[in-house]
Design goal:
CATH superfamily of the largest domain: Response regulator
Number of domains: 2
Number of strands: 15
Strand order of the largest sheet: 2-1-3-4-5
Structural class: alpha/beta
Order of helices and strands: EHEHEHEHEHHEEEEEHEEEEEH
CATH topology of the largest domain: Rossmann fold
Strand content: 25-35%
Number of helices: 8
Largest sheet: 5 strands, parallel
CATH architecture of the largest domain: 3-Layer(aba) Sandwich
Length: 248
Amino acid sequence: MIKAVIIDDEQNNLDNLCRLLEKHCPEIAVAATALTADEGRAIILAQKPDLIFLDIQMPGKSGFELLQSLPDHFFGIIFVTAFDQYGIQAVKFSAIDYLLKPIDTHELKAAVSKAITRYSEKKQNLQLENLLQLLKHQQEKDTHRIALATAKETRLVKTQDIVRCESSNNYTTIYLLSGEKLLVSKPIYEFGELLHDYGFLRCHQSHLINKKFIKSWVKQDGDFLLLEDASLVPVSRQKKEYIKELFR
């Protein structure tokens, strides 16, 4: 059994998630619930749960502030929120599971299944540590690392070590400065959203590039960007004006 704690500022949300877990996730034993971040902190330290379901926005202290106040992060975590904007960018950046209210049963079961797998493999919660570093150093973008989940592992990669991304249906190949390639089961538009503020440009439906690696604009048999690694990336007609401004 996986010992869990639920922290949410609304009692009906606590009751609802408890019912869903009891019905659909019998491996989860809810040891305690809390309505505030301070109460949740005390319960976490006392109970030492394996898994925490944590609301992000709460009055007084947020779920993020609660995590930052803890001395250790020995647990798995699934965020639960009513909002798709507040803090979700950082959560996605670290590839941590989150559920939107009202909770979808299939998404809950999938998130719990992944949490159980991580627990059984006794993996260190590097993704949570990465999230806390992002929150602590929000303005230092050059130091930020993004979690890339491949078939074998989840890698934490500095955004500035990514040269480009190339789409293949619902998969994306990430090309690194070292020459290494990582295949990630995530569509390229998601990376476009995550990396937009890190100097990345969606120059084509299937291509996303780090602007700092652009070497030249090649106008031959179409429009292409030549990158520092010698790769030629096509430019779509919709992006030509933007590229002109960039070179200007």
